[in-house]
């Protein structure tokens, strides 16, 4: 559940394409063979060692139906139409990997569950055109949920809301406060029962990640991914060993809040900070300090005919073994994400941006990461 806000990896995947310039803003992605195990057409990568292929960028569906953090605490038909537009534009642009969770949009008055919406959008496109998508959803490790049985029963609820018989990825949304062994066994059971094609974790520290990898390995189940907060201005995974451990163990790092909840798009300024809960994080003062970095992002983007949003998503892709999952609220945002694919920043640009980003004091991350 996302309380968040907003490596030494270098730019291994960039080398073949150093200095390449392309224009693709607001167009479907053009694939390049870069990091990870590319599948046949080069537009997809494997989720860790699972054999599940997904697009190199996914779409986050947290805001769909949500009235706790997004959407000014209201959900209406216009927002529903926009969310459907985001889904359709993603599929039309070639992005078919969607991230949701049982807790997104759940349980609060006025909210519509994100899984139910995603399921409905998928069904409509499937019926019309037979479109295939990859779904990642998440188990909420709530304190009153114990043991492996709770994972299977929560998963069955998710499958029913999504209207599918299995999902491509099932992730533990955050570590359990009483331990994770039972939850990990539940993931392995789900995998063996064919209810999930791959399993992952989220907000896991390096130690938890290694423990989870080891426990699942004993059951012959590959740990495919760790979903963590990672963006140009929130580089904790580079500093806390998570990115390096993912690379070492062959686990894909799925980057959430990759555009710092809109702060890195350049649309919010000191005079125009975001409203709602984000306004308490990305304050005018913070956005003032961010401006030199935004100016540099814009300058670099200009030479590629790319927007700041596309540059910062590309920066993440350049780290290798990273799939960003930006949240799209409407078709325009989804189309813009597609333009983050099919080209790469140079290694020098990647480092220049990292170095300037060090000057920006990071916002607070999801607290459990550090436990
Ligand atoms: N595992 C976890 O604990 C966890 C935590 C957080 C998120 N997530 C996942 O990660 C996904 C993405 O993270 P996030 O939603 O927190 O943050 P994000 O992707 O960094 O930011 C998304 C927000 O940025 C704004 N935006 C999107 N595209 C834009 C564009 N092209 N131009 C300008 N503004 C744009 C939109 O809000 P406005 O239009 O209102 O500005 C949008 O809701 C979530 O949907 C969820 O699936 C997981």
Helix residue percentage: 25-40%
Number of strands: 10
Question: In CATH terms, what is the fold-level topology?
Answer: TIM Barrel
Question: Mind telling me the CATH superfamily name?
Answer: NADP-dependent oxidoreductase domain
CATH architecture annotation name: Alpha-Beta Barrel
The share of residues in extended strands comes to 5-15%
Number of helices, where a helix is a run of at least 4 consecutive DSSP H or I residues: 12
Radius of gyration: 19 Å
Largest sheet: 8 strands, parallel
* End-to-end C-alpha gap: 16 Å
Task: Please mark out the parts with pLDDT under 50 across 5 or more consecutive residues, or reply none.
Answer: 1-40
- Arithmetic mean of pLDDT: 88
Helical/strand content category: alpha/beta
Describe the structure in your own words.
One of its GO terms (molecular function) is oxidoreductase activity. InterPro entries: Aldo-Keto_reductase (IPR050791), Aldo/ket_reductase_CS (IPR018170), NAD(P)_OxRdtase_dom_sf (IPR036812), NADP_OxRdtase_dom (IPR023210). With 371 residues, the protein is of the alpha/beta class. The protein has one domain: TIM Barrel (Alpha-Beta Barrel), CATH 3.20.20. It has twelve helices and ten strands. The strands form two sheets. Strands 3-4-5-6-7-8-9-10 form an eight-stranded parallel sheet. It has a two-stranded antiparallel sheet with strand order 1-2. Strand 5, helix 3 and strand 6 form a beta-alpha-beta unit. The radius of gyration is 19 Å and the shape is globular. It starts with 43 loop residues before the first strand and ends in a 14-residue tail after the last helix. NADP nicotinamide-adenine-dinucleotide phosphate binds next to helix 11.
């Amino acid at each position: 559940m996302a309380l968040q806000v907003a490596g030494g990896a270098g730019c291994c995947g960039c080398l073949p394409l150093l200095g390449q310039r392309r224009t693709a803003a607001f167009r479907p992605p053009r694939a390049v063979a870069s990091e990870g195990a590319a599948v046949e057409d080069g537009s997809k990568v494997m989720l860790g060692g699972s054999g599940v292929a997904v697009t190199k960028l996914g779409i986050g569906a947290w805001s769909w139906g949500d009235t706790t953090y997004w959407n000014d605490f209201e959900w209406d038909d216009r927002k529903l139409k926009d969310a459907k537009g985001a889904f359709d534009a993603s599929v039309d642009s070639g992005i078919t990997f969607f991230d949701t969770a049982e807790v997104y949009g759940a349980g609060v008055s006025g909210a519509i569950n994100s899984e139910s919406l995603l399921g409905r959008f998928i069904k409509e496109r499937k019926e019309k055109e037979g479109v295939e998508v990859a779904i990642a959803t998440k188990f909420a490790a709530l304190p009153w949920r114990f043991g492996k049985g709770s994972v299977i029963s929560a998963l069955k609820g998710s499958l029913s809301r999504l209207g599918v018989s299995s999902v491509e990825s099932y992730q533990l949304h955050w570590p359990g406060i009483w331990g994770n062994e039972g939850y990990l066994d539940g993931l392995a059971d789900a995998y063996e029962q064919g209810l999930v094609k791959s399993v992952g974790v989220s907000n896991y520290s390096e130690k938890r990640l290694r423990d989870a990898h080891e426990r699942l390995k004993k059951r012959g189940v590959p740990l495919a991914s760790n979903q963590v907060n990672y963006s140009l201005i929130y580089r904790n995974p580079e500093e806390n060993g998570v990115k390096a451990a993912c690379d070492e163990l062959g686990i894909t790092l799925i980057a959430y809040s990759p555009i710092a909840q809109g702060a890195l798009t350049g649309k919010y300024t000191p005079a125009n900070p975001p409203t709602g809960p984000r306004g308490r994080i990305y304050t005018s003062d913070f956005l003032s300090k961010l401006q030199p970095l935004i100016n540099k992002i814009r300058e670099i983007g200009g030479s590629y005919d790319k927007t700041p949003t596309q540059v910062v998503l590309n920066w993440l892709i350049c780290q290798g073994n990273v799939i960003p999952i930006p949240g799209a609220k409407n078709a325009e945002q989804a189309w813009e994400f597609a333009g983050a694919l099919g080209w790469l920043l140079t290694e020098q640009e990647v480092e220049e941006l990292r170095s300037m980003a060090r000057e920006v004091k990071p916002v607070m991350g999801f607290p459990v990461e550090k436990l």
